[in-house]
């Protein structure tokens, strides 16, 4: 039986990457050591992290005035690092269009009890179950604010932001965890981008931060580990970094470059998602909860059947048929197909055939 992994993260990795990592696992570059055994100060690892940064810069066309950091703590640690480093004594705006954006704002509110800054909820679609991206107006944004925080892809709810809002000149900080390298955003449109690796980049444990140099803090923050300038000056080697994860990210970057880069990947993602969305749209049995089609995610596609009972049955039968981790997030239920960069198109075709059979067997 063929297994298709629809997990929202940690997610499917390219088989070519896994095979290469397997081949090099016991002896990396004739060192007679595994990558996991290499000193982070060694010449061999120094080349790995430099290659990883070079490849990412090439894939995303990252300008020279941006620093690229490989950090730990997951994207959620950035919820605190961002205001600690950037917002002291200022206003900071939050566009909340999903559960992770809400968590980022909640952490900022918590932190504002300790350090002097003002987190402002600029707009939220929570009252509507996060079924759309709320609109904002530049006139509501003070030009001297530290930043506007937003999430480009809402993993749980299946919405995405492709056109960036007018922010009255305020830098945009984007949580790009679930669609980095899956859509051709222009890095220069952002003050900072951050992303957990475990969806499109590699295994869990690495967080990518791309930050414009002029936004680096001028004063030390609460902890050296949470200090962007210290991390940048140390070239991500202030302490032992997640060496194996960075190595895996490098392999994924190589794979993506060989495939044709982000432009080609976007094309493939559009084709994969269109197959599933088109099938759902023509069906009277399945529904997609996203209100506006232009807000639909290329990466995460939630859907439901006519009832929770049937949703539960679908999840059980899908799992037995080899469609793994397709159950929707516990906060919203239903199903969710995560079609990240490494997910194969044949998996989408197979899922649609299963959905057709399930509909035929269970429609009223």
Chart the SSEs and their pairings:
Elements: E1 4-5, H1 15-24, H2 43-60, E2 66-71, H3 74-86, E3 91-96, H4 99-111, E4 118-124, E5 147-151, E6 153-154, E7 159-160, E8 172-175, E9 192-196, E10 207-212, H5 228-233, H6 243-259, H7 261-282, E11 300-303, H8 308-320, E12 323-324, E13 335-338, H9 345-362
Parallel strand pairs: 1-12, 3-4, 3-5, 5-8, 8-9
Antiparallel strand pairs: 2-10, 6-7, 9-10, 11-13
Helix pairs in contact: 1-6, 2-6, 3-4, 6-7, 7-9
Domain Aminotransferase class V: 3-351
Pathway: Amino-acid biosynthesis; L-serine biosynthesis; L-serine from 3-phospho-D-glycerate: step 2/3
Binding site for L-glutamate: 41
Which features characterize this protein?
364 residues; 9 helices; globular
Proportion of strand residues: 15-25%
Shape: globular
The DSSP helix count reads 9
Unreliable runs, pLDDT <50, ≥5 residues?
Answer: none
Cross-sheet strand order for the largest sheet: 2-10-9-8-5-3-4
Q: Biggest sheet: strands, sense, closure?
A: 7 strands, mixed
Helix content: 25-40%
Terminal CA distance: 30 Å
Task: Please identify the structural class as seen in this structure.
Answer: alpha/beta
Pathway: Amino-acid biosynthesis; L-serine biosynthesis; L-serine from 3-phospho-D-glycerate: step 2/3
Subcellular location: Cytoplasm
Organism: Streptococcus zalophi
EC number: 2.6.1.52
Architecture overview:
The protein has about 375 residues and is an alpha/beta fold. About 35% of the residues lie in helices and about 15% in strands. It has 9 helices and 13 strands. The chain has helices at about 15-25, 45-60, 75-85, 100-110, 230-235, 245-260, 260-280, 310-320, 345-360; strands spanning about 5, 65-70, 90-95, 120-125, 145-150, 155, 160, 170-175, 190-195, 205-210, 300-305, 325, 335-340. The protein has a 7-stranded mixed sheet, covered by helices on one side. A two-stranded parallel sheet has the order 1-12. It has a two-stranded antiparallel ribbon with strand order 6-7. Helix 4 links the parallel strand 3 and strand 4 (about 120-125). It is globular. The mean pLDDT is about 95. InterPro entries: Aminotrans_V_dom, Aminotrans_V_PyrdxlP_BS, Pser_aminoTfrase, PyrdxlP-dep_Trfase, PyrdxlP-dep_Trfase_major, PyrdxlP-dep_Trfase_small. Homodimer. It catalyses: 4-(phosphooxy)-L-threonine + 2-oxoglutarate = (R)-3-hydroxy-2-oxo-4-phosphooxybutanoate + L-glutamate; O-phospho-L-serine + 2-oxoglutarate = 3-phosphooxypyruvate + L-glutamate.
